[in-house]
């Protein structure tokens, strides 16, 4: 059983000013105490009121056969749930502009265990997510190139390419040097290995794609440098990682020749030190400032990887809160590169980077929770992406139901 309700915050504010005993009529002492701790109490009141209405709808009784006080809103680790007599309900309470929206779903008896295991998505990140339309084809989800791989370093581009497909890209091409083409063709099932007899032929092919990620395992030899110079001069949305960043550190002038904010850089602190000529200590002590300054100066989207990865374009900044120490493992950054590249077709580059960093970390968290941090490998992050995307897709389906409920029932019963 599911119930949904929406309440306008301004109407709650108006009612409280007109009816001084409103809180006591609707909420118990514990609930009122929680309301008073909120900086903006009207948002919380509207949310909790909507939650009680949603529970009454889930029970199909409505407020009338039971009182507001019969519905008790409680919390486990700041996650709300409701108790009504001998029944318990999961609650999701959200705020969108001037509205509070609540969903109530009947829970099993062991709600404490389930609530502790429940993953609550970050609301701002969740709002970025786009569910797939039904009437589509693979081109709608992006034709992506991963430019990378070299003798002895085939794993990096292999991970990036497979991560891009797992993250929803429609087509993924791994552009590789001729000496590893046969090997990569055998290794791949869904990604497509491509090699070219000259750089002009490569450039012509890349022109028809939606986005390019360059660097994983590409090496630092003369051929890699020639490929780098050809690709960075193309007028395409571009992500640069790994060896691409090391080549870039010697040629920063290439960045300033590119169109503003069409480039994503994904350095760890060591690579960022080479890009900026700052010491590791300076970077560690001023991560947000040095990231902001670099992104603003060079007009790029910067993803400064590490504990609490930073994403910035020089003005706005996002500090990620997903991920764990188990992800400090070979290939983890290559997986992130693949995820970002998959999002570059249908999101702004800044949103693509934020969403990908969050998804990447959450996938690692899900693996660590079910298995262990110690055993986590880069490929495990790829394997758990479906769990993460399922969370986003389920929430978006609920958002659709909320929109439908809003159209059907613009005004909650108590407020009419």
From TrEMBL:
CDD domains per the UniProt record, alphabetical: YXKO-related (cd01171)
Top-level taxon of origin: Bacteria
Catalytic activity: (6S)-NADHX + ADP = AMP + phosphate + NADH + H(+); apo-[ACP] + CoA = holo-[ACP] + adenosine 3',5'-bisphosphate + H(+); (6S)-NADPHX + ADP = AMP + phosphate + NADPH + H(+)
GO cellular component: cytoplasm
SUPFAM superfamilies per the UniProt record, alphabetical: 4'-phosphopantetheinyl transferase, Ribokinase-like
Single GO MF descriptor: holo-[acyl-carrier-protein] synthase activity
Residues the entry annotates as binding (6S)-NADPHX: 217, 268, 334
Binding residues annotated for Mg(2+), in chain numbering: 5, 53
GO biological process: fatty acid biosynthetic process; metabolite repair; nicotinamide nucleotide metabolic process
Protein residues bound to AMP: 305-309, 333
Cofactor dependency: Mg(2+)
Sorted UniProt keywords: ATP-binding, Cytoplasm, Fatty acid biosynthesis, Fatty acid metabolism, Lipid biosynthesis, Lipid metabolism, Lyase, Magnesium, Metal-binding, NAD, NADP, Nucleotide-binding, Transferase
Gene3D superfamilies linked to this entry: 3.40.1190.20, 4'-phosphopantetheinyl transferase domain
Domain YjeF C-terminal: 121-392
Subcellular location: Cytoplasm
Annotated EC: 2.7.8.7, 4.2.1.136
Its biological purpose: Catalyzes the dehydration of the S-form of NAD(P)HX at the expense of ADP, which is converted to AMP. Together with NAD(P)HX epimerase, which catalyzes the epimerization of the S- and R-forms, the enzyme allows the repair of both epimers of NAD(P)HX, a damaged form of NAD(P)H that is a result of enzymatic or heat-dependent hydration. Transfers the 4'-phosphopantetheine moiety from coenzyme A to a Ser of acyl-carrier-protein.
Family, as annotated: Belongs to the NnrD/CARKD family. Belongs to the P-Pant transferase superfamily. AcpS family.
Subunit structure: Homotetramer.
HAMAP family xref list: AcpS, NADHX_dehydratase
Name of the protein this chain belongs to: Multifunctional fusion protein
Upper classification of the organism: Bacteria, Bacillati, Bacillota, Tissierellia, Tissierellales
Gene, per the UniProt record: nnrD
């Amino acid at each position: 059983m599911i119930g949904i309700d929406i309440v306008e915050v301004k109407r709650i504010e108006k009612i409280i000013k007109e009816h001084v005993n409103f809180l006591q009529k609707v909420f118990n002492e514990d609930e009122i105490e929680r309301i008073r701790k909120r900086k903006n109490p009207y948002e919380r009141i509207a949310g909790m009121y909507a939650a009680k209405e949603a529970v009454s709808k889930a029970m199909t009784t409505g407020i009338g056969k039971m009182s507001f006080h019969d519905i008790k809103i409680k919390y486990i680790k700041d996650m709300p749930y409701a108790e009504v007599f001998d029944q318990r309900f999961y609650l999701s309470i959200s705020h969108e502009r001037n509205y509070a929206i609540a969903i109530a779903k009947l829970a099993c008896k062991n709600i404490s265990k389930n609530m502790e295991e429940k993953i609550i998505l970050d609301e701002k990140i969740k709002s970025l997510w786009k569910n797939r339309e039904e009437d589509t084809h693979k081109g709608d989800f992006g034709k992506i190139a991963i430019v990378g791989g070299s003798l002895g370093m085939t794993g990096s581009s292999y991970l990036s390419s497979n991560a891009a497909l797992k993250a929803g890209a429609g087509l993924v091409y791994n552009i590789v040097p001729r000496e590893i083409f046969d090997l990569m063709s055998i290794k791949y099932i869904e990604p497509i290995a491509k090699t070219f007899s000259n750089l002009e032929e490569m450039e012509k092919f890349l022109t028809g794609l939606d986005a390019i990620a360059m660097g994983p395992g590409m090496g630092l030899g003369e051929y890699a440098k020639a490929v780098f110079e050809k690709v960075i001069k193309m007028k395409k949305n571009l992500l640069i990682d790994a060896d691409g960043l090391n080549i870039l550190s010697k040629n920063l002038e290439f960045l300033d020749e590119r169109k503003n904010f069409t480039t994503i850089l994904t350095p760890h602190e060591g690579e960022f030190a080479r890009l900026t000529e700052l010491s590791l200590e300076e970077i560690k002590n001023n991560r947000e400032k040095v990231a902001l300054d670099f992104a603003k100066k060079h007009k790029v989207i910067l993803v400064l990887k590490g504990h609490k990865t930073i994403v910035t374009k020089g003005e706005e900044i996002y500090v990620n809160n997903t991920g764990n120490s188990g992800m400090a493992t070979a290939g983890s950054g290559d997986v992130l590169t693949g995820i970002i590249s998959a999002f570059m077709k249908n999101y702004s580059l800044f949103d693509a980077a934020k969403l990908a960093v969050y998804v990447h970390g959450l996938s690692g968290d899900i693996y660590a929770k079910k298995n262990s941090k110690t055993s986590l490998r880069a490929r495990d992050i790829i394997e758990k992406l479906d769990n993460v995307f399922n969370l986003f897709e389920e929430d978006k389906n609920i958002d659709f139901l909320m929109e439908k409920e809003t159209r059907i029932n613009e005004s909650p019963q108590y407020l009419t």
